[in-house]
Amino acid sequence: MNTRLWLAAALCVAVALTPWGPLALYPFTLFTTWVHECGHAVAAVLLGGAVRSITIRPDTSGLTRSLMPASLPAQAIVASAGYLTASVVGCLLLTASRVDRRAKPILWAIGAFMIVTLVLWIRNPFGALVVVSWALALLALGGRRATTGVAGFAISVLAIQVSLNAVFDIRTLFLVHGASDAETLARLTGGPAWLWAAAWMAISVFLLAATLRATRGRK
Asked: Taking a C-beta distance cutoff of 8 angstroms, is the pair 104, 146 a contact?
C-alpha cells in the first residue's frame, strides 16, 4: 500500500480502538449498509425485477423490497448480491485510491449516484438523512474547490472502512439467527445458512487479499 493508504488504515484502527470508536465510525457503517442494499437493488433490476424500496435503519441494518421473477437462480443471485457487492466496492475503492486523479471524479460519481438512489429507492426518513448527508459530503470532496490530497485521503479512508465492514458484516451471520440474506438463500436452496455465510466470507477475504497483492507498490 502507498503511504496515504497506510495512514488511512492506521487512523481507522486507532479510532476503532478508542471508547468512542464505534460512534465515530458509525457513518461509515451506514455507508456500507447503503452499498449492501444497493447491491441487492441493482442485481434485482439487472435480472428483470423491480425495486419497491430501500430502508436503512439506525441500528445499521437495511432492507430492500423488490419484485423478482419466479426464478431460483435470479433470486439466489439477488440474495447474495448485498455482501458481495460491498466486498467488490471496497476492493474497487482500494484500487482507485492508488491514483490521485481518480479520487475526485469517483467521489463525485458516488455522491451523484446516492442522489439517484434517494429519488428512486430510499423510502424511510432515516435512510434519506443518511444518503443526503453522505451525498453532500462526497460531492463536496469531489468538487472543484476540494484539493486532490484531501480527496485522495477521503477515498482511502472510505476504501478501508468499506473493505473491513464488508468482511465484519458477514461475520455477524455466524452469531445471529433469524431473518438474513444467508437464511433467505438457505430457504431457496435447502443448504444451511452458515454454509452460504462461509462462502461469502471466503470470497470477500480472497478479493481483499488479491486486491492488496495486485496493487502493492503500484501507482
From this structure: yes
Which grid cell is 20? 468512542
Range of the domain at 156: 3-215
Q: Identify the residue whose cell numbers are 433467505.
A: 184
Which grid coordinates are listed for 103? 479520487
For residue range 144-200, list pLDDT tens digits in order.
777 888 888 899 899 999 988 988 888 888 776 667 898 888 888 887 888 989 999
Rounded to whole angstroms, the Cα distance separating 117 from 123 reads 10
User: Which residues neighbour 208 within 8 Å (Cβ) at sequence distance 6 or greater?
Assistant: 87, 90, 91, 94, 163, 166, 167
Closest CA to 103 of 141, 137, 136, 134: 141
Cell of residue 167, nine digits: 468482511
Percent of the chain topping pLDDT 90 = 53
The answer to whether the beta carbons of residues 134 and 107 sit under 8 Å apart is no
**C-beta of residue 23 within 8 angstroms of C-beta of residue 171:** no
For the chain, the domain total comes to: 1
